[in-house]
Amino acid sequence: MLARLQLLPMLGLAVIWVVLTGEVTVSSVFYGLLVAALLLWFFPMPPLMSTVRVHPLGLAALVGRFLTDLVVASVAVAWKALRPRPVNAGSLLDVKLRLDDDLRRVVVAELTSLVPGTVVVDVDPHTSILTLHVLDVTEPEQLARERAKVHALEDRVERALSVAGRPARRPVTELRLRPDEEVRP
Length: 185
Hints:
Elements: H1 7-21, H2 26-42, E1 52-54, H3 56-82, E2 91-96, H4 102-114, E3 118-124, E4 129-134, H5 140-160, E5 161-163, E6 183-184
Antiparallel strand pairs: 1-5, 2-4, 2-6, 3-4
Pfam families: MNHE
Family: Belongs to the CPA3 antiporters (TC 2.A.63) subunit E family.
Transmembrane segments: 12-43, 55-79
């Protein structure tokens, strides 16, 4: 009966409640815990994944490179908005992800989508294909570069977050189109 009430999600929901009420009082904390318990009772969450391990150096490299990509892409998108030449429509790009667990695929999709100039359209959980739209990219060489960026991000996510019981694989460093991937202009 109490197994449905997981401590960490319950505390997280209670903190959100307190933040939304705008004041930290005994009653707001109490009602936050009560609302959290009711939510978790009626809408139980799946068990938290305990097989994911965070590697601090890999995480630091992932965050550092993400922030760098964020700044560079922001400047590039700002330039595309301000330059006198019109912006091309862009392209849809399918990228076959090599990661085989949902959590790390979602991290790759979110980090890809947070960088200006790219929007994740779909992540197929059965085929591990990430479909994204890239701004102002239409040439095959540019598409190959974007695909390589996603694969490099995937490698950084794999170094930052590992799943127990799965062998580590070597990162792919080639910039080329694979036969199972399709480019859609």
